[in-house]
TrEMBL record, chains A, B, C, D, E, F:
CDD domains: MoaC_PE. It comes from the Bacteria. Belongs to the MoaC family. Homohexamer; trimer of dimers. This is Cyclic pyranopterin monophosphate synthase. The active site is at 136. It comes from Naumannella cuiyingiana. GO terms for molecular function: cyclic pyranopterin monophosphate synthase activity. NCBIfam families: moaC, PRK09364.1.
Length: 167, 167, 167, 167, 167, 167
């Protein structure tokens, strides 16, 4: 758990590798615990029929999206079990929203912690699993459902400061 | 757990909802256990610098991709914990491959079972988590990494027979 | 894993103990896999204010009860992790309902399997965790919420045949 | 994760819902970490035969109750996995006791943390799972065993101060 | 998931690797489900003081060993989560015993399944975790406690037939 | 959760037992969070053929050892789920190395935390599971593989200060 990061290809560093180039959980013992937040978002493309079904109101819509959102929140907490080198962090808040658009569903996860490292992976995992769970709910009516984008949208806190995706 | 599926919008059925439109784990007690396979695939867009780093050989590449593949295999087994209404199934085989292309990495998961229902969700979850794990490995060198596609590619076995995505 | 059950106090047997009186997971290798179902139910007493809030319609009610139901379904799948001596079983169906009454909420779980042993514990665990999850959702408005009953209501299948609680 | 709680029915607030009335993990980022403790208790009604068996000494009694207690301690740690909106907290102590009475077993769980929110749910979940595990141990001799009460008994620490159930 | 095993170094085959030499969960879809059993054993060397303490009777001894045994049983069920390429199998019986000897504790796990592949890894994992759990229980009195042996002792069932360690 | 440890056999104390001699998770609420590190090591004896196979270069070696190392890192995070009375701790770093020797493989785990109690059990569990995972990878070519030693090698931090095994 040497502090010195492995340098390669100029400035590029793969901090998750130790001196021997082997995977490890990066040592963050010396980093102070600060308030951090990350937002990730994803989009699931759905058929017109499926969108109509989700929009036709009543409990079904609520339940399909509620299941996806809850799956996302629970997945944020499961991130250290799923992503082999992620640190276990005390999450202090997680919100996952799911909005039906004309051609699919947009899912956004915001995750907060007070810890020595960021929560981008928690937000990304929450969105990915919420997208999968939504597909599970509607796959009987739309077997072509597809996740078309999952990405970190913004993060704040920590040494690297605030960042917002702009591509 | 009434057998009668909830009918809505013509033929469309959301089988994961009970008569009251509430989420449930669909009853598959009366479906025979048959050999089933599903394949899912995903793509993570990466910067040229990151692709070069992954291609520059040696252990690091092996480890970054190995971590992603192993995360995917383990996620296939965790699917019933992550996707709220998925059935626990005895997986009989899981293979996850990760191939570096000129602009990213293509991840493919093949999952097999001998069970009463299919393993599309297991394959889809394996790919999603493998993509997230790969991003975790390289996020220090490519903060814009993005999952651009996760989809079921093919399935075989079960009552609905073989199916291959053709869009 | 001797087949001979430990006999004590006449006919009474604690099958979960081995010959030395130690806890073990009972050997069911020789029991045939048959269709089995179990139903459990529970009641959470709630304040009039809380009942009114849950009944006042809109999404909140849906979400509070949906969270409890989903927690119950997921807990059924987690039973072998929670109940030390329970067998891992391939659940083929799980439905959890939650109904608001004048003085609380009645939660019912029905679980099915095709296996060598029954699913009473899965149904009981699903109800218990759903009750806890409901309390979590409303504890800010009703700190006196209390689980007043959790019990197996009926079971069918297996050697012992159908049984219905009648006390 | 807006700070403003959703107001409904006068002062009553369901803090686990966001502005859209959807379930979320409440944001506690701004709450200081303080020492907190919660106690919950539950009662499992058992037949006279079953009570006699548990009281007849020797290893079996020890093991049946030990299994229930250990299941409870482990369940306290699993609370964030079971209760969808619970925060993961660093538990600093957990004790579960099980006492056989004339008509059943009384189970008490005390849980401590140094965190930004309380551990009532951890104590409640520990008791619920311990009760279920006890039933699993004795269900072969008492199929009518029933959980008759699970409730938070007291809590201390945090902004709301000490509280003791008095109903 | 090609059936053809990777051949290397004469007859030696590492079946957990695919044609590209990458880790995978071996495909056992075509293997029949048969009754299988595996036994593993381990030894934890303990100080004389610690042995005396475990032998001095009363509840403590029961609890320390009971905790180790229960941890082992639960670990058998967790094997597919811990060993990346293990298949999830429906365990039909698990027994873990712990015996105090003059210089330590001997732990034995017997695991049974009705499945397409064996349960050596489940037995091995159960023993390893039981040994760790025992050390956790007594580490305050014996910081030099050491696991000195963990091995598969015997297996039966499956194509390869019965086997007993004889070294 | 009384602070007073149970005294027995002179100075020897089994702190994991409460006043009634029952297992509990020790109360560490009053201990300050300090930087702590623990190292554990283990040895898996392997046949000459197996050692040659692991040494013969190429991807297979990388993957077999990589799987073992990753399993170890993930097991460190799972310790509170596996060891019944372990505290959940925020690990700040974990590194597992695996080195092939002439007669087997030496596995070393270093774990760090900033917490109120040590991480010996996390290091010990990481090594044990990594050893099991390695055996799973090579068991097709070496059915006599055996774990011959797993022990805590050193620890630092906390009230008891630095310690290094010297037997």
């Amino acid at each position: 758990m040497a502090e010195r990061p492995v340098e390669r290809a100029g400035d590029a560093t793969l901090t998750h590798l130790n001196d021997a180039g082997e995977a490890r959980m990066v040592d963050v013992s010396d980093k102070p615990a600060t308030a951090r937040e990350a937002t990730a978002r994803g989009f699931v493309r759905l058929s017109a029929e499926c969108v109509a079904l989700l929009r036709s109101g009543g409990v079904p819509k609520g339940d399909a999206l509620a299941v996806a959102r809850i799956a996302g929140i629970m997945a944020a907490k499961k991130t250290p079990e799923l992503i082999p080198l992620c640190h276990p962090l005390p999450l202090t808040g997680t919100d996952v929203t799911a909005e039906v658009t004309d051609d699919g569903a947009e899912i956004v996860a915001r995750v907060r912690t007070l810890g020595p490292t960021g929560v981008e992976m928690e937000a990304l995992t929450a969105v990915s699993v919420a997208c999968c769970a939504l597909i599970d709910m509607i796959k009987a009516v739309d077997r072509l459902a597809r996740i078309e984008r999952v990405e970190v949208a913004a993060k704040s806190g920590g040494r690297s400061g605030d960042w917002k995706r702009e591509d």
